[in-house]
Amino acid sequence: MLTTELARQNHADMLADAIGTCLEVNREFVEACCSEDVRDMLFQLSDERDMSEALVNSLGDAREWGIHVAPSSVIILVGEIEVQYEGSPEEYFDDPEDWTISGDCAYLAMDSVRVAVDMDSLREEVVERLPAITERDRQTFLSGYWGCVDFTASDSEGEPIDADSRHELPAETVAEMEETATDFLQAQWIWLHSCDDLSDAGHDFHLTRNHHGAGFWDGDWKELGDRLTEASKAYGSCEVYQFDDGSLDVVS
């Protein structure tokens, strides 16, 4: 006998399996059915076929119903489900009083279906479809980064100095700083790939991680500001100081 629980589960599975096939994933679908975090990632892609593949490959196993808002989800509004049956309702349904019977069809209320999205998988799928970071991209980012490192460099009294950190710091320190900056660029490429000038991003990475009075959070990056600010601060501080003997080094 068919229970309401099983009927809803079957319908949820059917709709989930239809995403990307019978249910076309395009910009309108993403706007209407995807949670904000999923939508933000998918809209980094311009090709709707890429959007569809990235989403379908990231759908999880969790399929629920009756949920209208939830993060990391695709939510499809339903209304009601229809089941065609044979015989009497009492023989076919475990709980016929929960159904609206009309001839050989029965109807059951079902608000919506939620399909979970694996956000780590979605991020990988989206990044895989973005243009790769070029060496020119990296050097542009690093030029802004080093420019800001020099701009904020100071002496032991906290006074600004005229520094050329990239060439005056020990080679191993320069390599380590560039590795850290490059790691940030790679990790945030999903948000930075369309940046008009990556040198601005390198500049704001240094300001933000060191808690200066400007950076990703000051408004220029709009909705990305909070995300990039949080990511920057995870790297900790790293400032260049000039000691009394004139040598430069970094202080965390």
Structure keywords:
252 residues; alpha+beta; 2 domains; three-stranded mixed sheet
Could you explain the architecture of this structure?
46% of the residues lie in helices and 18% in strands. It is an alpha+beta fold.
Could you give a short description of this structure?
The protein is an alpha+beta fold and 252 residues long. It folds into two domains: 4-126, no CATH class; 133-251, no CATH class.
The number of helices is: 12
Estimated share of beta-strand residues: 15-25%
Relative helix content? 40-55%
Total count of domains? 2
Strand-pairing-aware structural class: alpha+beta
Low-confidence stretches: none
Task: Itemize the secondary structure elements and their pairings.
Layout: H1 4-18, H2 27-33, H3 36-42, H4 48-56, E1 59-65, E2 73-84, H5 89-92, E3 100-102, E4 105-117, H6 119-129, H7 135-152, E5 154-155, H8 165-168, H9 171-187, H10 189-192, H11 198-209, H12 225-233, E6 239-242, E7 248-251
Parallel strand pairs: 5-6
Antiparallel strand pairs: 1-4, 2-4, 3-4, 6-7
